Amino acid sequence: MTATLTRFVAEPPPRDVADALERLRHVRDVARIAVMPDVHLAAGVCVGTVVATRTMLLPAAVGGDIGCGMAAVACDVEAGVLADARTAAAVLVGLQRAIPALRHPGAGPRCRPRWPNARCPPPRCNRSSAAPPACSSARSAAATIFWSCRPTTRTACG
């Protein structure tokens, strides 16, 4: 079975990255792959991807430069909230204010996002198989912000 590939990038990746992603799509047990704006090829892995498997853990799928400029926060909100252009623009401005760009430990004092001001409700938890859409946002070191909203399923509370 071939894994589903979702890209959050502005343009097609370089050929070597595209080839690595295609190989990863065919790895046994890989169900979904999300490609982030900072995707790049590293030693043995395609950094800037999120790989969902069905039953296995793939420790080698984590690159050596993990945490090099990506942050993701999941919020339980309806995707339809972003359909209105003014609301979507206001959310984007809020994200730009709340999420720091290009902060490295050697660059000075750590800058932490002001999450209490982000107005993300705590995740809802229920034991049914249907859950509200999960929306996540991320901003890379290059200041790329994206939203991913899709229906999710939840089988247990955690």
From TrEMBL:
Question: Bound how, and how many: what does the cofactor note say?
Answer: Binds 2 manganese ions per subunit.
Which Pfam families does the annotation name?
A: RtcB
Which InterPro entries does this UniProt record tie to the protein? RtcB, RtcB-like, RtcB-like_sf
UniProt keyword list: GTP-binding, Ligase, Manganese, Metal-binding, Nucleotide-binding, RNA repair
Q: Which cofactor does it need?
A: Mn(2+)
Species for this entry? Nannocystis pusilla
Q: Name one GO biological process term.
A: RNA repair
Is Nucleotide-binding among the key words of this record? yes
Q: Which PANTHER family match?
A: RNA-SPLICING LIGASE RTCB
Record's catalysed reaction(s):
a 3'-end 3'-phospho-ribonucleotide-RNA + a 5'-end dephospho-ribonucleoside-RNA + GTP = a ribonucleotidyl-ribonucleotide-RNA + GMP + diphosphate
Enzyme Commission code(s) on record: 6.5.1.8
Q: Which GO terms describe its molecular function?
A: DNA ligase activity; GTP binding; manganese ion binding; RNA ligase (GTP) activity
Q: Which residues bind Mn(2+)?
A: 65
What name appears for this protein in its UniProt entry? 3'-phosphate/5'-hydroxy nucleic acid ligase
Domain of life the protein comes from: Bacteria
The question of whether Nucleotide-binding is a record keyword is answered with: yes
